[in-house]
Amino acid sequence: MNDSTSVNTASILDRAKTVLIGNYGRMPIVMARGEGVYLWDTDGRRYLDLFAGFGGGILGHCHPELVAAATEQARTMWHVGNTFHSIPQTELAERLNKFALTGQAFFCHSGLEANEAAVKLARLRGASQGKAKWKVVSLNKSFHGRSLAMIAATGNPAVKAGFEPAVPGFTQVDLGDMEQLTGACDDETAAILCEPIQGEGGIHALPTDYAVELRKLCDARDITLIFDEVWTGCGRTGKWFGHQHFTLGASGTGESVTPGRYCITPDIMTLGKAIGGGLPVGVMFAKPDIAKLMVPGKHGCTLGGNPICMAVSKTIFDVIERERLLDHATRLGEHAVKRLRDEPKLRDRIRDIRGRGLFLGVELKTPPDKIVERALEKGLIINLTSQKVVRLAPPINITPAEWDTGLDLLIDVMASQ
Fold it and tell me: Quick one: which of 180, 250, 378, 398 is 20 to 30 A from 59 by CA?
């Protein structure tokens, strides 16, 4: 364990300002180490982390099994180009087939890159149909990344500002408005891209009936349905993947989730954040009849599928399954919603609570004043999005006691506004 108190925090902050581009709104804190759901800064202060590095730390900090998987793989094979097969890539793809749907994987570094690959594959599918299908329809309040193409796909004007002219071929419609969506799709539409739960947009979930209509529309018009599961993948919502909440009875169509139940499935699913447990991993996962169109030369990623990252990623699935963390996330999420809704101190402050499992948004009636900073002063890490939505995405293996401690601190912070 490093002695973080021996580090001169002010010196690190001054040096960082000189050598790092200021594209992040960083706090004047230098984090030095982590363990479980806690982080310690260079002054030795401890923080309860209820945001897990934008959801990436799905099993918390320095999980011993993930450390062991990375260490063993690093001692075995560090890197090999994708002109060769590797065991960890295959084993992770097999887990996706087990827990998601029948498909094939392309590995990259981030959810952004996975979304770019998905749009390319959708266009390839359109071309294979003998049509000039290249347009993508997404949703307002969405977020799909910060490349030029994904800025165009994102339904947030603030993200687009300063990067005009927009990459052509992308348009947005309002979530839930099927008439508007249907009207936006024409003979040149290759894909519909959406998040099962909008993350940056304020934790807005797609209703199941809307997802059903999405699937019907895509089937009727040969449009590729892409679910951006960068936030909702790997158990965060209480299901392995967010689209598995869109369940139907036995008469429905889709992938079987439990006997007699089916879920609306995408043609392509994209993953990031939690899939790497904090390491840079992105995945585009496509149904085989579509995946086969991405032949050699059409796309690639030099370090995508790095053996160390893959070894960690596959271990994440093993831990979640063994420890039954899907049910755990569901229970803790339900507990948090009830606690916050029943809390007398917050009765006049909360407008709504949204989300599933341990991916929650608490919308306040008015924009809070420096709530993230005030939480940090109490030793709590949270996030604010859409000006007044407090966003919670802790490690899903957080204990009930740790979760309640975090909720106690959160209640105090919100009540003191």
Answer: 378
Decide: 358 and 396 in contact? Cβ < 8 Å: yes
Q: What is the pLDDT of residues 261-297, one digit of tens each?
A: 678 999 999 999 999 999 999 999 999 999 999 999 9
Output 130 or 224, whichever has higher pLDDT: 224
Two tokens at 80?
């090999």
Give me the DSSP letters along 340-396. Answer: HHH-GGGTTTEEEEEEETTEEEEEESS--SSHHHHHHHTTEE-EEETTTEEEE---T
Please state the domain count of the chain. Answer: 2
pLDDT attached to residue 249: 73
Q: Which residues span the domain enclosing 331? A: 29-62+324-415
pTM reported for the whole predicted model: 0.95
Both 84 and 207 in one domain: the answer is yes
**Tokens of residue 180, six digits:** 């508007």
On whether both 135 and 40 belong to a single domain, the answer is no
Q: Does 130 share its domain with 82?
A: yes
Helix (H, G, I), strand (E, B) or coil at 64: helix
